[in-house]
UniProtKB/TrEMBL annotation:
It comes from Streptomyces similanensis. Residues 27-49 have a biased composition (Low complexity). This is PQQ-dependent sugar dehydrogenase. Residues 63-363 form the Glucose/Sorbosone dehydrogenase domain. InterPro entries: 6-blade_b-propeller_TolB-like, Glc/Sorbosone_DH, Quinoprot_gluc/sorb_DH_b-prop. It holds the Pfam family GSDH. Residues 17-51 are annotated as: Disordered.
């Protein structure tokens, strides 16, 4: 596969230093003092350069424009429908689907609609679901009470808007959200087709945002009183943390390079002045890059020492083995063309992944049973 490996050019990241925490502050080991240095961390070992992945089973079929996926601690998978604006619960054992309800205010158009979803860090006590969606005027973040005791179709409370004003467009709406290990809410946004917004730190477009669960700029953000955590992004739809709480993001390129980036607080990732590896000291270079017809990355996940990246146009699942914040070997592709466009990949614990296809999003070629959730096993 020399052509494939040549396309999957790797670059070293000017990534997170090992002494920084997700908040951007230098971290210390509890109990360490100036006269008592923190104990050395054990050396990181890179996973094997090659691995395998296989589809264990099809969990569910017949999903309409699925986008976000959130596993419930009590069992079940919540899935958002971009175009219908609904959330369904899938029984991961039987595949049975139960509609929770529609999210009011969603205006689906182009790449916009009901996008990412995430569970509250205090879900066990508050039963709140967070969502990122496109409204008639902007992209926004809301939270809703989920009450499974109510009748199907009426299990979602009214959305409470916690953050709004993210630029919307027919394209580049971002939309992935996730709570980090620090309990803060992270959101990947797009520049809505207006390139200049990505470099404007006062704009919310083309950014990774870091917020409190109530929607305020999170303490320790790199820019005072700002929700902006990193900037210079074209369209971020993938967020994942490794085992040492380091953040990675997948990003759509324009014509040449899609990217996997190691995210540092306050980092500038170059768009629109750079696409892929630039070598320009002003910008953070990606740790891996692909030609856009081989990836077009949406969701990413961390499992078994690697980042897993779901490709839409590329119609394949990429594995990027990590050592620290760098790729330790060339990316490896799986399932190429087998299931069509791939939208979301989520760690399912241990050596398992949930993978969501995206052939009913208007750009794919739906087959019988699309769209689906697959359970994968990786080694």
């Amino acid at each position: 596969m020399p052509g494939l490996l040549a396309a999957a050019v790797l670059v070293l990241a000017a990534g997170c230093s090992s002494g920084r925490s997700p908040s951007g502050h230098h971290s210390t080991t509890p109990g360490a003092t100036a006269s008592s240095p923190a104990p050395a961390r054990p050396a990181e070992t890179a996973p094997p350069a090659k691995g395998t992945v296989r589809v264990v089973r099809t969990v569910a079929e017949g999903l309409d424009s699925p986008w976000g996926l959130a596993p419930l601690p009590e069992g079940g998978l919540l899935v958002s429908s971009r175009d219908r604006g609904t959330i369904v619960r899938v029984d991961e054992k039987t595949g049975r689907k139960t509609e929770l309800g529609a999210v009011s205010g969603v205006a689906a158009q182009g790449e916009g609609g009901l996008l990412g979803i995430a569970l509250s860090p205090r879900y066990a006590s508050d039963h709140l679901i967070y969502a990122y969606f496109t409204s008639a005027s902007d992209n926004r973040l809301v939270r809703m009470l989920y009450d499974p005791k109510r009748p199907a179709g009426d299990q979602l409370g009214a959305p409470d808007t916690i953050f709004k004003g993210i630029p919307k467009g027919v394209i580049h709406n971002g939309g992935r959200i996730a709570f980090g290990p620090d309990g803060m809410l992270y959101a990947g946004t797009g520049e809505s087709g207006e390139r200049g917004l990505a470099q404007d730190r006062k704009s919310l477009g083309g950014k990774i945002l870091r917020l409190t669960p109530d929607g305020a700029p999170a303490p320790g953000n790199p820019f005072p009183d700002s929700p902006v955590y990193s900037y210079g992004h074209r369209n971020v739809q993938g967020l994942a943390w490794d085992g040492k709480q380091r953040l990675f993001a997948g990003e759509f390129g324009q014509d040449t390079w899609d990217e996997l980036n190691a995210i540092t607080p306050g980092g500038n990732y170059g768009w629109p002045d750079a696409e892929g590896k630039s070598g320009d000291g002003r910008f953070r270079d990606p740790i891996a890059q692909w030609h856009t017809d081989r990836a077009s990355p949406s969701g990413i996940a961390y499992a078994a020492g690697s980042i897993w990246l779901a490709g839409l146009r590329g119609e394949r699942l990429w594995r990027v083995p990590l050592k620290g914040t760098a790729a330790s070997a060339a990316p490896q592709a799986f399932l190429t063309g087998t299931y069509g466009r791939l939208r979301t990949v989520v760690a399912a614990g241990g050596d398992r992944l949930w993978l969501v296809t995206s052939d009913t999003d208007g750009r794919g070629t739906p087959k019988k049973g699309d769209d689906r959730i697959l359970e994968l096993r990786v080694t």
